[in-house]
């Protein structure tokens, strides 16, 4: 499912398809591609519709997925959560099964954007500091797709690097059930009007005795902070699920250093230098670590 999987000179779409099932969507997409039609998938449309109107994007046909109820489902298994590609940010805001995901959804854009934007649209647009993508990167999520060749699943990083297989429709994302506190923080302009400049997600899993962290807005895709994660795992008192202020400072410093090594890096301007982004990444990581692991903090806990 994509709000931005093709790029060509401007031309308005001349055909609109409205499937009611995933199977119909796959068939319509396949039929359009076989006929040589340039087709895009429309999910929330918060990125695609303005691009089509402005002429930045073109399409001969649009497959609109709003009526596919299968894509609006959330589910929970013993160890995992599955979130349909048509689930909106508003749908996630109060989801107690994943407090970190709920927190991420709460700070996405305006109310109108949260009501319209979807999980699948975020995957298709793949903004470098996209709120949802940063959180899902930290969560080691995988992307589920359907195509004429059948269902498939891809690690999120591989999906973001190469996109879905030709003719595939994203149906859901899957991530582990929370095993401890998790949070999401970002720095930007007015959050209702502008995307994040730098974003950070930290997830703690007390059962596996691990911490994961992802930074968005420094590289072209969100990046995991693996060195900082390994150091943090040794600094955490797993018996109490807490860490010291010194551990938080060390974590922040390691993330700052790792952010400076991310390649390829995003282009920067005079107001947002590379050094600023690296520093912001460390600041956010230190705050997120503190929120999750220092006793006086108030983390986002699973309920």
UniProtKB/TrEMBL annotation:
Keyword Cell wall biogenesis/degradation (UniProt): no
Protein's name in the database: Aerobic-type carbon monoxide dehydrogenase, middle subunit CoxM/CutM-like protein
SUPFAM superfamilies associated with the record: CO dehydrogenase flavoprotein C-terminal domain-like, FAD-binding/transporter-associated domain-like
Organism, as annotated: Frankia canadensis
Any GO MF annotation of the entry: oxidoreductase activity
This protein's record includes keyword Flavoprotein: yes
Classification lineage: Bacteria, Bacillati, Actinomycetota, Actinomycetes, Frankiales
UniProtKB keywords: FAD, Flavoprotein, Oxidoreductase
Residues covered by the FAD-binding PCMH-type domain: 5-180
């Amino acid at each position: 499912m994509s709000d931005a999987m093709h790029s060509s000179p401007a031309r308005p779409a001349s055909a609109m398809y409205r499937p009611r099932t995933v199977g119909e969507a796959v068939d319509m997409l396949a039929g359009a591609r076989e006929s040589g039609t340039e087709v895009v998938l429309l999910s929330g449309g918060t990125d695609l519709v303005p691009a089509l109107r402005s002429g930045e994007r073109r399409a001969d046909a649009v497959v609109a997925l709003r009526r596919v109820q299968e894509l609006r489902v959330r589910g929970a298994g013993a160890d995992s959560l599955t979130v349909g590609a048509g689930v909106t940010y508003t749908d996630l805001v109060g989801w107690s099964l994943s407090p970190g995901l709920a927190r991420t959804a709460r700070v996405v854009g305006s109310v109108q954007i949260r009501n319209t934007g979807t999980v699948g649209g975020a995957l298709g647009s793949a903004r470098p500091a996209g709120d949802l993508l940063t959180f899902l990167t930290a969560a080691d999520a995988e992307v589920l797709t359907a195509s004429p060749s059948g269902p498939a699943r891809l690690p999120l990083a591989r999906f973001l690097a190469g996109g879905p297989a030709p003719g595939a429709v994203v149906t859901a994302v899957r991530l582990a059930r929370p095993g401890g506190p998790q949070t999401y923080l970002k720095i930007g302009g007015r959050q209702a009007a502008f995307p994040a400049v730098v974003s950070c997600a930290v997830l703690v899993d007390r059962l596996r005795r691990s911490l994961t962290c992802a930074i968005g807005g420094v590289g072209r895709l969100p990046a995991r902070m693996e060195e900082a994660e390994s150091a943090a795992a040794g600094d955490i008192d797993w018996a109490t699920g807490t860490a010291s202020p010194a551990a938080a400072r060390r974590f922040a410093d390691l993330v700052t250093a790792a952010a400076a090594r991310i390649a390829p890096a995003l282009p920067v301007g005079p107001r947002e230098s590379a050094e600023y982004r690296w520093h912001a990444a460390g600041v956010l990581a230190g705050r997120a670590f503190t929120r999750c692991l220092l006793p006086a903090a108030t983390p986002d806990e699973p309920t």
